[in-house]
Write a structure and sequence with these properties.
heterodimer; A: 299 residues; mainly alpha; MetI-like fold; 2 domains; two-stranded antiparallel sheet; 12 helices; 2 strands; 79% helix; globular; B: 279 residues; 11 helices
């Protein structure tokens, strides 16, 4: 009887160990299989041409990813520029000023915003943001714009990353030891001075790390951006030009590529590129955030 | 002067919060206003009929059922991975081991990988295994997407659990495996909320199922058949030049939004009840 129990315990333990090892290795598995699929195109063209050429004619065998890379960066940067001020202001408000009932009211708002599926965001963007840009904003700068632009992608994306930013920045603020803010307040500083000189200053590394995390989320967002950003494979020259980020490229051309091995390999290269960038950003920011959490736990 | 600055910023902060709240209401309002006229019982009870994509009768039952099949399958797979994993790092490994740190770190990274990359990897995996775009492919891809989500939220609930219970069980002579069976019962509400969270994320994601599950007008009856899904149904219907079909896209968007609202609401109810009865 006793041996059976211990045997059960041991076998479960090894099963769990197996799952754990598999999870850690899973990242490598994804990375290597994407790389393996991307190898044909990387052998055919050199990496410099793939990354920095703007010549995108898949049916002639020219694969230059530069417009897509620029588009991805452009849209994500605009999204961050819009989302970050909002998120920091709201986080300060929730952390230092808002009453309990306001916080309790705002939590589900943030939850819902993060729960709405990308397709719904995309749909909303095409119904509201795109016409707004085409009718109201664009005429002030250029003669004509369809509204399917970098700006539209940036705005929709900004709303999608605000919940992520708020939830992590609030956590960072909470991790600041209460003694510090108390000390500042008891020395006669106003609440706002404390926010500025203590809370914000202590949170700078954390906010930078959070920004990187949000950027990496923005890089990979597919459906919502695809639906509002125009999808023209050219380098966008202003925020009122159409653009074509990497994820949209992969999603849009999936059916077509099956007929051409080099096209398939090129799209897999795009996925691999996205994977590497996201892992890099994510890794650095998670590492920083974990360290911040630990530092405050012991101080 | 220093009070003036504070007052100004306070107003700005409230405005920022109101803008975000307004955007949420704007999104929900737009979806409901646009979709309600086209929403009827046929939408959720009928398969697409002949000429559905030209504006003739039918509904999106195929997509609703397809999405449910995909999410049920992937939640099952995901449970079998995330539950043992969370138990392992919390109760088997020592408290500050490098291995549990490595597992949590890699899950954090996996959590950040875009769904389109999971879709591409899932597709590569299916080619390797010789599976076509099918229900099974969709289940595998979505399972990859939601496992890190489920595991992280379950881990958070588990970390909140008091250590008296495991200590008491172990000192009574239970093996760790027996201890975990008891602890899981204690964790059940937390487990349910993390499943709901994962379902919400998985059911709304289009990029993973785009290459892996395919699309069909029928309800799949085997794992090898393609399966339709709601987000893709919305996406395809919106792309149609026919106005009736577009309107049905809006109606499908309402269906998906309502599902998300219900999931979000019920997980909130469960977690608030749970925090009242926590030992």
């Amino acid at each position: 009887m006793r041996t059976v129990r211990i045997l059960k315990d041991k076998s479960v333990r090894y099963l769990m160990l197996g799952i754990a090892v598999f999870t850690v290795l899973f990242l490598l598995i994804i990375g290597f299989s994407l790389l393996f699929k991307a190898l044909p195109i990387m052998k055919e063209k050199n990496l410099g041409t793939l990354l920095f050429s703007s010549d995108w004619k898949p049916f002639k065998g020219n694969f230059g990813f530069f417009p897509f890379i620029i588009s991805t960066l452009y849209v994500s940067l605009i999204a961050i520029l819009i989302a970050l001020p909002f998120s920091i202001l709201i986080s300060i408000y929730l952390n230092s000023y808002a009453s309990k009932s306001i916080i309790r009211f705002f939590e589900p708002v943030v939850d819902l915003l993060s729960g709405i599926p990308p397709v719904i965001y995309g749909l909303w963007g095409t119904l509201t943001i795109v016409p707004l840009i085409s009718n109201k904003i664009a005429p002030k700068f250029v003669e004509f714009s369809t509204g399917y632009t970098v700006l539209a992608g940036g705005i929709v994306l900004a709303i999608m990353i605000i919940p992520l930013l708020i939830s992590i920045i609030v956590e960072i603020f909470r991790a600041i030891p209460g003694e510090m803010t108390d000390a500042s307040l008891s020395l006669g500083a106003t609440k706002w001075q404390t926010v500025k000189k203590v809370i914000l200053r202590r949170s700078v590394p954390g906010i930078i790390a959070t920004t990187m995390l949000a950027l990496s989320r923005a890089f990979g967002e597919t459906m919502a951006v695809l639906m509002v950003c125009g999808n023209i494979p050219e380098i966008p020259h202003s925020f009122l030009d159409a653009c074509y980020p990497l994820p949209a490229l992969i999603a849009n051309n999936w059916g077509e590529m099956l007929s051409m091995p080099s096209y398939e390999s090129a799209l897999m290269f795009a996925a691999f590129l996205l994977f590497i960038i996201v892992i890099l950003f994510n890794g650095i920011s998670r590492f920083t955030l974990n360290r911040i959490e630990k530092r405050f736990q012991f101080s | 002067m220093k009070y003036l600055e504070e007052k100004v910023f306070k107003v700005v902060m409230v405005i920022a919060a109101l803008v975000v709240l307004g955007v949420l209401l704007y999104i929900l309002g737009t979806i409901f206003l646009k979709g309600l006229p086209a929403l009827n019982l046929d939408m959720i009870t009928k398969l697409p009929g002949g000429g559905f994509y030209l504006g003739k009768e039918g509904g999106v039952l195929n997509a609703i059922v397809g999405s449910l099949y995909i999410i049920c399958g992937s939640v099952l797979i995901s449970l079998f991975i995330s539950v043992p994993l969370v138990m392992y790092i919390n109760f088997y490994l020592p408290k500050k081991s490098w291995f549990s740190g490595a597992i949590r770190f890699s899950l954090d990274i996996l959590f950040g990988i875009p769904s389109i990359v999971y879709g591409a990897f899932g597709f590569a995996l299916m080619v390797f295994l010789g599976i076509k775009a099918s229900l099974l492919g969709g289940i595998i891809a979505v399972a990859m997407l939601i496992t890190p989500i489920m595991m992280r939220s379950l881990d958070e609930v588990t970390l909140l659990l008091s250590h008296d219970l495991p200590d008491a069980l172990l000192s009574l002579g239970a093996t760790r495996y027996e201890m975990i069976k008891v602890i899981l019962r204690q964790l059940l509400p937390g487990l349910i909320t993390s499943v709901l969270l994962a379902v919400g994320r998985g059911i709304g994601d289009a990029a993973t199922v785009l290459f892996t599950a395919g699309y069909t007008d029928n309800i799949p009856v085997a794992f090898g058949q393609p399966a339709a899904s709601l987000p893709l149904a919305i996406f395809f219907q919106l792309g149609s030049p026919v106005e009736e079909v577009q309107n049905r896209g809006y109606a499908s968007a309402i269906i998906l939004t309502i599902i998300i609202l219900i999931l979000s609401f019920s997980s909130r109810v469960i977690s608030s009840k749970y925090s009242k009865n926590k030992i």
